[in-house]
Amino acid sequence: MNKNPHVAIVGATGAVGIEMIKTLEKRNFPVGKLTLLASARSVGKTLKFRGTDIAITELTKDSFAGIDIALFSAGGDISREFAPIAAKAGCVVVDNSSAFRQDDNVPLVVPEINAADVRKHKGIIANPNCTTAITLMALYPLHQAFGVKRIFASSYQAVSGTGAKALEELERQVGQIVNKQPVTKEVYPHQIAFNVLPHVDSFLPTGYTKEEMKMENEGRKIMHLENFRASVTCVRVPVYRSHSIAVSAEFDKPVTVEAARAVLLKAPGLDVVDDPANKKYPMPLFTSEKYNCEVGRIRMDCALDNGLAFWVSGDQLLKGAALNAVQIAEELVK
Fold it and tell me: How far is CA 71 from CA 18, 123, 164, 316, in A?
């Protein structure tokens, strides 16, 4: 891998694409050249990188000649079509969609957990689901110490996880309600303002949603833990940014709050914010635009054997997407 790689961002004008550009700059990633790719309708726009305006170019089959690393965040259909083309052109793809996560030939990586898996790539590396990545930042260090068997979890997912139009929808609806106007909806099946929707992604025949099953399926692959089980309810909440997850985890070995806290304090990419007496606990408002996830409300779970309950919050556009992708790229350059 070139020490100053030519990097492309596919889906550069989307919420995650914009965060990828900012993250490359903030982390001083050794970009030799940056190419911004998007659909034809974005051509003519420019985005700033290191003080320079970079023009958007149209994504085509011929876009990847000479590119070393391509960060994809343009949805599963684009990834399925263009990631194999990019890989064939000699480019390493870091894909943010769910298209390749369960593919046996594609590593699924959270660098703090399984960075070594990056080396096994055959041209494509998958970025995990945002809720899964944020949860595992706290769960994996605990697993290393105590051996996790299963978790029960509920997510509290921000609207920016759906995209820019969902942010506009929440803002518009709040205005409509405050001004006593009829509420209009386009993005979500129900009003999201002043409401919560127990519906993220599409429903499966089991009654779970696809999003809910990602925690178990992706968790198994990232942690190399075939027997891991996760029963999850994913909920969309009227929050702009940062996902939060309430987790009850059951372990093989006996666990105490003190031992768990000692483990979490040493965990990379994670801050312990856990002082309920002084009203300190992780919140989406305070994890937004931060690289680290936060864990708090750490307590013994009173319904499980060797159980621990905790609450995690993290920026799903960063650790859940752009930051994790750039960290994978950093591993590639190493």
Answer: 12, 12, 19, 16
